[in-house]
Write a sequence for this structure.
């Protein structure tokens, strides 16, 4: 079994709606060289796509989750039950080796129970993002749907269940410098977010990436995600390779 580490750190992210600053520059280390260098897309390249679909600085799932709970804080007390509202979240930034932009359009609806007490917030969104990193660059579009519960005051955490799809065109900068198109699908279950820090504390999910290389060859990778808290997660591919992720 191979274990690899993908660390994200350092770059300040500019966001609207008081979403906490998150950032990254991407490095990858491996205890064993990947042997599938002749594949349409290697495990390392597939993992890079998966990580960027989670990374908040690339407009990924972690940002969407944090944004959903941040919007929940401002919406659950002021929104009217059954009345839809819209929001926009944008961000950009970079370092000498990395740059990124994202623009996300959100639609939300508050559902209330007995006595007009908020019970859940349903979100849907569409968006676009780009990133240029040392190992890969990408131009993406994303869609998703989230449900946030745990709105009651007695609960210390929000619970988020979500589906997320990201379609993009990538240019690899390592090995054979391949370019390819890809689709990432993520489904999470009971992702918990602290109401104090607005950070993910736990949760699980599945992730799959499929696509086609410029050579016409297709590829497919799948695995599981476990959120560990402290801005960390693990991705375990079906091959058994584990990627430790930190943003």
């Amino acid at each position: 079994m191979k274990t690899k580490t993908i660390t994200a750190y350092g770059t300040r992210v500019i966001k609207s709606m008081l979403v906490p600053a998150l950032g990254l520059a991407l490095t990858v280390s491996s205890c064993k060289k990947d042997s599938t260098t002749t594949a349409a897309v290697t495990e390392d390249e597939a993992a890079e796509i998966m990580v960027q679909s989670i990374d908040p600085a690339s407009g990924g799932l972690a940002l969407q989750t944090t944004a959903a709970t941040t919007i929940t804080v401002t919406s659950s007390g002021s929104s009217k039950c059954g009345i839809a509202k819209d929001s926009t979240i944008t961000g950009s930034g970079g370092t000498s080796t990395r740059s990124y932009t994202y623009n996300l359009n959100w639609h939300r609806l508050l559902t209330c129970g007995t006595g007009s007490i908020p019970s859940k917030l349903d979100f849907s969104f569409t968006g676009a993002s780009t990133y240029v990193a040392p190992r890969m660059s990408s131009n993406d579009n994303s869609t998703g749907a989230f449900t946030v519960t745990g709105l009651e005051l007695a609960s210390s955490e929000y619970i988020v269940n979500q589906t997320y799809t990201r379609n993009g065109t990538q240019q690899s900068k390592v090995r054979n410098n391949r370019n390819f198109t890809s689709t990432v699908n993520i489904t999470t279950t009971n992702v918990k977010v602290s109401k104090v820090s607005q950070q993910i504390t736990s949760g699980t999910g599945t992730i799959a990436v499929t696509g086609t290389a410029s050579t016409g060859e297709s590829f497919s990778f799948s695995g599981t995600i476990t959120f560990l808290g402290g801005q960390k997660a693990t991705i375990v591919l079906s091959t058994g390779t584990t990627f430790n992720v930190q943003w």
Q: What stands out?
A: Confidence is low (pLDDT under 50) at residues 5-38.
